[in-house]
């Protein structure tokens, strides 16, 4: 989050709104159940989940998606046993170590959404490396929500706006929806068109609360480690059947009533 005024974020947002393609966001859920069904420890479910992420990123670019946001670790996931938290922390580094160079060559910009507090030095260094190497790329935006919670992000944005007001840089009346959004950690990307949750659970679990205002929701029964091109194609096929109205009315209905 750029502190001390949002001009840079707004300028970058302006650039990014020209990015073509859909914004798809995914709550990658079901690693534990996938492992349990195979009599494996949960950590192996998470490792299989990283493979699914690689397959999904590759498929997304092919399917005309311009921005993919994935939920990797929530602000509530700290409540899991220490060993599991440790494993999950290690996976971000493993993903970046194995895939960053290739993602960079393919023109992917990587951003990590969420709070930096509480993350270890090695995770912070990994995030800094991924973001700085890829910051000029504009073919595809990959946002990894890690130590992310929608409420935390909104709270932090409100605090940073308040700091700008107290410092005299802005007045309370300067707060518009667009300006508020520029303080969120998602400020670089467009709002999601489609949010997918795997594993059959039908809830948002504190993901993209502000940004999801008009997203279409698709819930799929597949467990995350089994995800990849085919389930993503079927989610997109479902998305294409939806009529998005954004609070307006269907043109045909308006004409019929007049
Ligand atoms: C998703 O899988 C990964 C994270 C939440 C980090 P889970 O670990 O939540 O798997 P289930 O829901 O227990 O099956
Ligand atoms: C949401 O999944 C968080 C991530 C996928 C990273 P959870 O498994 O933590 O969510 P709940 O506890 O089922 O709501
Ligand atoms: Mg879960």
Describe the model.
The chain has 258 residues and is α/β, with parallel strands linked by helices. The chain has a single domain, classed as Undecaprenyl pyrophosphate synthetase. Helix content is 47%, strand content 15%. It has nine helices and six strands; from the N terminus they run H-E-H-H-E-H-E-H-E-H-H-E-E-H-H. The chain has helices spanning 7-16, 31-37, 42-62, 82-105, 121-134, 150-166, 177-183, 229-241, 251-257; strands at residues 22-27, 65-74, 108-113, 140-148, 194-197, 216-219. Strands 3-4-2-1-5-6 form a six-stranded parallel β-sheet, sandwiched between helices. Strand 3 (108-113), helix 5 and strand 4 form a beta-alpha-beta unit. Helix 2 packs across helix 3 (42-62). The longest helix has 24 residues, at 82-105. The protein is globular. The relative contact order is 0.19. One 3-methylbut-3-enyl trihydrogen diphosphate (IPE) binds at residues 28-33, 73, 77, 88, 199, 224.
Keywords:
single chain; disordered N terminus; Undecaprenyl pyrophosphate synthetase; binds 3-methylbut-3-enyl trihydrogen diphosphate; binds magnesium ion; 47% helix; alpha/beta
Q: How many extended strands?
A: 6
Query: What structural class do helix, strand and pairing data support?
Result: alpha/beta
Ends apart, CA distance between termini: 48 Å
- Annotated CATH homologous superfamily: Decaprenyl diphosphate synthase-like
Helix content: 40-55%
Shape: globular
CATH topology, by name, is Undecaprenyl pyrophosphate synthetase
Unreliable runs, pLDDT <50, ≥5 residues? Answer: 1-18
Bound molecules: 3-methylbut-3-enyl trihydrogen diphosphate, magnesium ion
Strand ordering within the main sheet: 3-4-2-1-5-6
Mean pLDDT: 92
């Amino acid at each position: 989050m750029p502190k001390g005024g949002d001009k840079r974020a707004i300028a970058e947002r302006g650039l990014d709104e020209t990015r073509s393609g859909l914004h798809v966001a995914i709550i990658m859920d079901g690693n534990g159940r996938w492992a349990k069904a195979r009599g494996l420890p949960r950590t192996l479910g998470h490792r299989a989940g990283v493979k699914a992420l690689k397959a999904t990123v590759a498929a997304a670019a092919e399917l005309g998606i311009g921005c993919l946001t994935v939920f990797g670790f929530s602000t509530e996931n700290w409540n899991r046993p220490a060993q599991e938290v440790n494993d999950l922390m290690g996976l971000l580094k493993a993903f970046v170590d194995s895939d960053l160079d290739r993602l960079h060559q393919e023109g992917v910009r990587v951003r990590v959404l969420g709070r930096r507090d509480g993350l270890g030095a090695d995770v912070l260094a990994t995030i800094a490396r991924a973001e700085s190497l890829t910051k000029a790329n504009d073919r595809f935006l990959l946002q990894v929500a890690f130590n992310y919670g929608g409420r935390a992000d909104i709270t932090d944005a409100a605090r940073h706006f308040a700091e700008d007001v107290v410092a005299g840089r802005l007045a309370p009346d300067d707060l518009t929806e667009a300006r508020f959004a520029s303080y969120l950690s998602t400020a670089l990307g467009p709002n999601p068109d489609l949010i997918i949750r795997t594993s059959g659970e039908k809830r948002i679990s504190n993901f993209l609360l502000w940004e999801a205002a008009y997203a279409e929701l698709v819930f799929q029964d597949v467990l995350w480690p089994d995800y990849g091109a085919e389930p993503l194609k079927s989610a997109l096929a479902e998305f294409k059947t939806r009529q998005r109205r954004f609070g307006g009315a269907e043109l045909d209905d308006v004409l019929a009533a007049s």
